[in-house]
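This section describes the prediction task in plain terms. A model, or a person checking by hand, is given the sequence of a single protein chain and must write out its three-dimensional structure as a string of tokens. No templates, partner chains or ligands are provided. The sample shown here is typical of the held-out split.
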Amino acid sequence: MSFPELSSALERNAESRIIDTSLAVDISYDHFAKNAASIAKDLIRMKLPEKSIVVIYKFEFPIDIACVWVACTNVDLIPYIIENDSLPSASDINYKAVISTSLSVSIEGTESSTLSDKFYIHIKKDGSFFTGNGDSLLIVTSSKTTSNIAKKILLGRKGTIANIQSNITALGIRKEDVTLIVLPMEYSYGLIAQFLSHIFVGSTIVFAPKIIGVIHISALIEKYSVSSIFLTPLLARLMMLYNKDRIESLSLKYVTLGGDKAIPEDIPRLRSIFNCRIIGTYGFAEVGPRVATKEIVEDENEYDLGNSNDGVYIDIENSPIYSKLTGKEDIGFLKVKTPSLFLGYINGNILNKKNKTIFITKDVTYRENGKYHNLGRDGDYLLLKSKLIWFIEIKRELFKDIHITKVGIRKIENRLKMSIYVRGLKDYKPDIENTLSKCFSLSPEKDYIYELLDFQSQTYK
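The expected answer:
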């Protein structure tokens, strides 16, 4: 068993509840653990190699994803969840099997069997496959690269436990809490920072519907007396679109905002909906995923990363290039020392290992009055007539239009290519060119090109 601490938490909190609102299922941790054990028995019969990778592919219901994920850890397999992407997104890792809810998953050279009378497992008959070491626990992904395939990050048991415990301490998670999960389970922020962190203390877990959870969030808070919700900036913006009325909940203690850099203008909008604390969390999948936590106060126009979590230390790897560009002395790449650092990136059968305790990020960060401020990723700027324009500054101006939900920016030489997602594009066209001209003196075609895309999804990605 590769994750005995999880089994112990489920047993210790046997009467705690897990609820999937899509299925109208409300079960105890004990019932959930028995379901996972039943799937694990079937997996044992499949005789999969220990520490080989199993892809959990496109499940409709989060509680099923969680149950199969736990079953895989029970029998020393390495689970990797794909909720939204297609299976070719896993082409850079040599997995051994795929578990799905459909028999018709097209994978060449596999044998298919029924798993626990509810799911299907497709096992590769031949060929090489990746196997991890004794500490290997799970796979999550980074942000997608220019090849459009996200890096596969192998996390270990010891590091994951350390990150869970530091997250529990930083947020003060308690057994009495009820957390509403609207994040995808494939995302480390949803799986580790929210789901597993609450399981470890025995909180009530409520899974929102995958598609319409943001729309019905007010009703879900009231029905289940929700005390915490974890959001990304994108989900927060969807909240602002779908929820015009203030949610006056006595149970809701805080909403976290993490997974990407939020713009300060969104905080007052979020406060107009939620009558609770807004807590910023910083981190990324390679560090397990949480690094720092900060309550965002009312009058902050710019906010820092916050206090590093227990056992985590952050510093600056100074960069003369960014010092020259910005005129700041204490600036460079954020350096994180943590016991929850990932084991490495998987590529095919190979694990590209990293330093065991220190990770130097690509996040350009400066330190001022003892606080750390993130400006963006390495290279996320445009230099125009000696004027430095960060991508986050452009996004900040564009996001003042509430209809714009997501902005992707890439730099090709010294010209920007932008993908701007708009909710209800058929009926509404934002004035991008006027905004960029007025705020940054940018000219279309010369300084940037862009495309407007209709934002259809109501989930994170």
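For orientation: Residues 235 and 373 are 23 Å apart (CA to CA).
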